[in-house]
Amino acid sequence: MLEAGRSGCTRADVGERKSQLAIEYSYRVRKKSPHIWVVWVYASNATRFEEGYRTIADRIQLPRRDEPTADILRLVRDWLCDEANGQWVMILDNTDDPTVFSDPRKGRRKADTKDPIRAAVPLSTFLPQTPNRSILVTSRNQDAALRLLGGDRDIIKVEPMDESHALILFTKKIRGEFNNGDARRLLQALDYIPLAISQAAAFINQRAPRITVTKYLGTFRKSDRDRASLLNRDTGDLRRD
DSSP alpha helices (H): ranges in 64-207? Predict the structure, then answer.
């Protein structure tokens, strides 16, 4: 999906679809190249972006990260740019606001605005640019994608499977009989994403007969938290790596 040293973007029009594809890509990277770091950063706003960098700093136990004056964004960027630290793939998720990375007023926390130099630096400054590393950007906003990538050459617009192909896949994955109507409604709720369909079928198979397609659909529809729990149950939460 991505070439070494390049950035790419998936732009999707429905909720979890883009993130599910990014998760699938992450798994493929880790399976093919276990030595490659996969780091996940939420980028819906400056606060979430900095929280992601703080998580990276804690995970790799970056020196000076706990100092009161530590510039976490700069420390993590510099660490990622150092080729001695190995290869990595960064998933920059939910990059939907085109101004987050380009507008200096949104780029740093309020505490930084006392320093005119730091306050004037946009978040894009802290996206590492280095050979043999990749950044995968997910966004529902084409303008945001274009601003980050500088053009549309590397943008991949995500389209869902149609219902008939999704049902064929689900039928191959699921064991035993199931309610066809509920299966179709579940596939629609999953946006016809192959990875999500496979995860749902595996979850149901592992817990049958206690869990059926109908019960899974009911739990999936309850809330965003229940939905995220089901989608991550069998994959692990790669978004925290």
Answer: 72-81, 104-107, 116-119, 142-149, 163-173, 180-189, 194-207
Decide: pTM greater than 0.85.
no
Q: Which two three-digit tokens encode residue 157?
A: 């617009």
From CA 107, how far away is CA 109, in angstroms rounded? 7
- Give residue-wise pLDDT tens across range 134-185: 899 988 888 888 888 877 888 887 776 889 999 999 999 999 999 999 999 9
Residues 135-167: b if buried by 16+ CB within 10 A, e if exposed: bbbbbbeeebbbbbbeeeebbbebebbeeeebb
Q: Compute the distance between CA of residue 131 and CA of residue 112 in angstroms, rounded to an integer.
A: 30
Beta bridge partners of 9: 137, 155
Alpha-carbon distance of 50 to 127, in angstroms, equals: 12
* Helix 180-189, helix 213-222: angle, nearest 10: 30
Query: Each residue of 48-70: b (16+ CB within 10 Å) or e?
Result: ebbebbbbbbeeeebeebeeeee
